[in-house]
Design a protein that fits this description.
alpha/beta, Rossmann fold, 27% strand
Length: 216
């Protein structure tokens, strides 16, 4: 079943610069996607449109058949589609558990024991108990990425969008993060869409979409 669908989507900053032109794609549940391509090909723009942060110049993007432009953007990004940013976007004055709990508060989902749930999520992404109460700036890049993933899982979205989630990580940590994504796809039937420059990451995906400046 398609979670997200693009139909004849185009985007331009102005009439002279077409970043994406007449793109039609389907993103299905239980599938890991890699979006690859040279710089300036529109990878981050595509992710931004899928998240609802950027509106296409032309065409439609639907989530489970509903045009996302008709959905409440706050609800869309806090309940249905989770976004993992390259810079993690964690709050540095909070610890790991508090960052995950904050995501639960934003989603407004009724969770009896938010701290316990946050700890379960952090454990599920491989963050050790000794790090749960540590401030974000005291964590390594790989540890911060795990917190970012746990935070996104806090509201149990069907779709996860990740912008260069392994771009700042070493090879071993990159593989560990990708293992988490693949497990979410296989065990929880998530649809995960990753923008990446890494050939190794792209090779791990079920489906690879390559964007090119020449195709516009």
């Amino acid at each position: 079943m398609s979670e997200l669908t693009l139909k004849d989507v185009s985007y331009s900053y102005d009439k002279k610069k077409m970043v994406i032109k007449n793109m039609s794609l389907d993103f299905e549940e239980g599938t890991l996607y890699a979006i690859v391509g040279e710089s300036g090909a529109g990878k981050t723009t595509l992710l931004s449109m899928l998240s609802g942060l950027t509106k296409p110049t032309m065409g439609t993007i639907t989530y489970k058949g509903q045009n996302i432009s008709k959905l409440n953007p706050y609800s869309y990004r806090s309940k249905y589609v989770g976004v993992i940013f390259q810079s993690y976007n964690l709050l540095p004055h909070l610890n790991a558990v508090e960052n995950v709990i904050l995501s639960m508060d934003v989603s407004r989902k009724k969770i009896p024991d938010k701290r316990q749930k946050a700890q379960e999520l952090l454990r599920s992404v491989g963050l050790g108990e000794e790090l749960w109460d540590r401030r974000i700036l005291k964590l390594s890049g790989g540890e911060q990425q795990r917190v970012a993933i746990a935070r996104t899982l806090a509201f149990d979205s069907d779709v996860i969008l990740a912008d260069e989630p392994t771009g700042n990580l070493d090879g071993k940590t990159q593989n560990a993060i990708m293992d988490i994504f693949m497990r979410l796809v296989r065990e929880q039937n998530k649809c995960i869409i990753i923008v990446t420059h890494s050939p190794e990451v792209a090779q791990m995906a079920d489906v690879k979409y390559e964007l090119s400046k020449n195709s516009k």
